Amino acid sequence: MNKDELALYEDAIQGLERCIEVLYGQAMVAADEYMSFVDRVEAKATGWESRSTLQLSCTRKGNHLDLKWTGIRWFGQKNNRQSIRVRIAINEESMTYAKDRLNTFAREWEIDEVMKTEKKASIHQTKVKTHCQGHHQYS
After folding, report:
1. pLDDT in tens, 6-52
2. Helices 3-44 and 111-138 sit at what angle, rounded to 10 degrees?
3. Residue 101 belongs to what domain range?
Protein backbone atom coordinates (compact mmCIF):
# COMPACT_ATOMS: atom_id res chain seq x y z
CA MET A 1 0.00 0.00 0.00
CA ASN A 2 1.50 3.33 -1.01
CA LYS A 3 1.40 6.53 1.05
CA ASP A 4 -1.77 7.89 -0.64
CA GLU A 5 -3.62 4.60 -0.27
CA LEU A 6 -2.60 4.41 3.40
CA ALA A 7 -3.93 7.94 3.99
CA LEU A 8 -7.25 7.03 2.34
CA TYR A 9 -7.44 3.86 4.40
CA GLU A 10 -6.80 5.77 7.65
CA ASP A 11 -9.42 8.38 6.71
CA ALA A 12 -11.93 5.60 6.04
CA ILE A 13 -11.20 3.99 9.42
CA GLN A 14 -11.67 7.33 11.19
CA GLY A 15 -14.95 7.86 9.32
CA LEU A 16 -16.21 4.44 10.39
CA GLU A 17 -15.22 5.09 13.99
CA ARG A 18 -17.08 8.43 13.99
CA CYS A 19 -20.14 6.75 12.47
CA ILE A 20 -20.09 3.98 15.09
CA GLU A 21 -19.76 6.60 17.85
CA VAL A 22 -22.84 8.42 16.52
CA LEU A 23 -24.79 5.15 16.33
CA TYR A 24 -23.71 4.30 19.87
CA GLY A 25 -24.96 7.68 21.07
CA GLN A 26 -28.30 7.13 19.37
CA ALA A 27 -28.57 3.63 20.86
CA MET A 28 -27.84 5.04 24.33
CA VAL A 29 -30.65 7.57 23.87
CA ALA A 30 -33.06 4.73 22.99
CA ALA A 31 -31.93 2.71 26.03
CA ASP A 32 -32.21 5.75 28.32
CA GLU A 33 -35.71 6.53 27.02
CA TYR A 34 -36.79 2.96 27.76
CA MET A 35 -35.32 3.07 31.28
CA SER A 36 -36.98 6.46 31.93
CA PHE A 37 -40.31 4.95 30.89
CA VAL A 38 -39.79 2.00 33.24
CA ASP A 39 -38.77 4.32 36.10
CA ARG A 40 -41.91 6.47 35.63
CA VAL A 41 -44.23 3.45 35.67
CA GLU A 42 -42.47 1.72 38.55
CA ALA A 43 -42.56 4.90 40.66
CA LYS A 44 -46.37 4.53 40.73
CA ALA A 45 -46.34 0.75 41.28
CA THR A 46 -46.56 -1.08 44.56
CA GLY A 47 -44.60 -4.21 45.31
CA TRP A 48 -41.83 -6.01 43.47
CA GLU A 49 -44.34 -8.11 41.50
CA SER A 50 -45.15 -5.16 39.26
CA ARG A 51 -41.53 -4.25 38.55
CA SER A 52 -39.94 -4.89 35.18
CA THR A 53 -37.93 -8.09 34.81
CA LEU A 54 -36.08 -6.89 31.72
CA GLN A 55 -32.83 -4.99 31.45
CA LEU A 56 -31.35 -3.37 28.36
CA SER A 57 -27.62 -2.76 28.22
CA CYS A 58 -25.74 -0.83 25.59
CA THR A 59 -21.96 -1.19 25.33
CA ARG A 60 -19.29 -0.35 22.81
CA LYS A 61 -15.87 -1.94 22.47
CA GLY A 62 -13.91 -0.74 19.47
CA ASN A 63 -16.10 -1.15 16.44
CA HIS A 64 -18.49 -3.52 18.23
CA LEU A 65 -21.82 -2.14 19.45
CA ASP A 66 -23.76 -4.49 21.71
CA LEU A 67 -27.36 -3.85 22.69
CA LYS A 68 -28.50 -6.71 24.85
CA TRP A 69 -31.79 -7.57 26.55
CA THR A 70 -31.45 -9.63 29.72
CA GLY A 71 -34.24 -11.22 31.72
CA ILE A 72 -34.32 -11.24 35.50
CA ARG A 73 -35.64 -14.17 37.52
CA TRP A 74 -36.32 -13.64 41.21
CA PHE A 75 -36.21 -16.35 43.83
CA GLY A 76 -36.21 -16.67 47.58
CA GLN A 77 -38.44 -15.49 50.39
CA LYS A 78 -40.10 -12.11 50.25
CA ASN A 79 -37.68 -10.39 52.62
CA ASN A 80 -34.61 -12.19 51.23
CA ARG A 81 -35.12 -12.19 47.46
CA GLN A 82 -32.24 -12.63 45.06
CA SER A 83 -32.06 -12.33 41.32
CA ILE A 84 -30.31 -14.12 38.50
CA ARG A 85 -29.79 -12.72 35.02
CA VAL A 86 -30.98 -14.81 32.09
CA ARG A 87 -29.54 -14.35 28.62
CA ILE A 88 -32.20 -13.82 25.97
CA ALA A 89 -31.15 -15.24 22.62
CA ILE A 90 -30.88 -12.88 19.67
CA ASN A 91 -31.43 -13.86 16.05
CA GLU A 92 -27.84 -13.50 14.79
CA GLU A 93 -28.88 -13.07 11.17
CA SER A 94 -31.48 -10.33 11.64
CA MET A 95 -29.79 -8.90 14.79
CA THR A 96 -33.21 -8.70 16.49
CA TYR A 97 -34.94 -10.18 19.52
CA ALA A 98 -38.21 -12.01 18.92
CA LYS A 99 -41.28 -10.57 20.64
CA ASP A 100 -42.19 -13.94 22.17
CA ARG A 101 -38.76 -14.19 23.83
CA LEU A 102 -38.93 -10.65 25.20
CA ASN A 103 -42.54 -11.19 26.25
CA THR A 104 -41.37 -14.02 28.52
CA PHE A 105 -39.87 -11.35 30.80
CA ALA A 106 -41.76 -8.17 29.89
CA ARG A 107 -44.66 -7.01 31.99
CA GLU A 108 -47.91 -6.31 30.18
CA TRP A 109 -47.51 -2.57 30.82
CA GLU A 110 -44.11 -2.43 29.10
CA ILE A 111 -44.20 -4.77 26.10
CA ASP A 112 -45.20 -2.07 23.60
CA GLU A 113 -42.35 0.16 24.80
CA VAL A 114 -39.97 -2.82 24.74
CA MET A 115 -40.80 -3.56 21.12
CA LYS A 116 -40.49 0.11 20.14
CA THR A 117 -37.07 0.23 21.81
CA GLU A 118 -36.04 -3.10 20.25
CA LYS A 119 -36.89 -1.76 16.80
CA LYS A 120 -34.65 1.28 17.38
CA ALA A 121 -31.86 -0.84 18.87
CA SER A 122 -31.85 -3.38 16.04
CA ILE A 123 -31.50 -0.61 13.46
CA HIS A 124 -28.35 0.63 15.20
CA GLN A 125 -26.83 -2.84 15.48
CA THR A 126 -27.59 -3.57 11.83
CA LYS A 127 -25.99 -0.30 10.71
CA VAL A 128 -22.81 -1.01 12.67
CA LYS A 129 -22.65 -4.54 11.30
CA THR A 130 -23.18 -3.27 7.74
CA HIS A 131 -20.54 -0.54 8.05
CA CYS A 132 -17.97 -2.91 9.52
CA GLN A 133 -18.63 -5.65 6.97
CA GLY A 134 -18.30 -3.10 4.17
CA HIS A 135 -14.96 -1.99 5.60
CA HIS A 136 -13.66 -5.56 5.82
CA GLN A 137 -14.83 -6.26 2.28
CA TYR A 138 -12.60 -3.51 0.91
CA SER A 139 -9.62 -3.75 3.25
Report:
1. 999 899 888 888 888 888 898 899 999 999 999 999 999 887 788 89
2. 170
3. 3-138
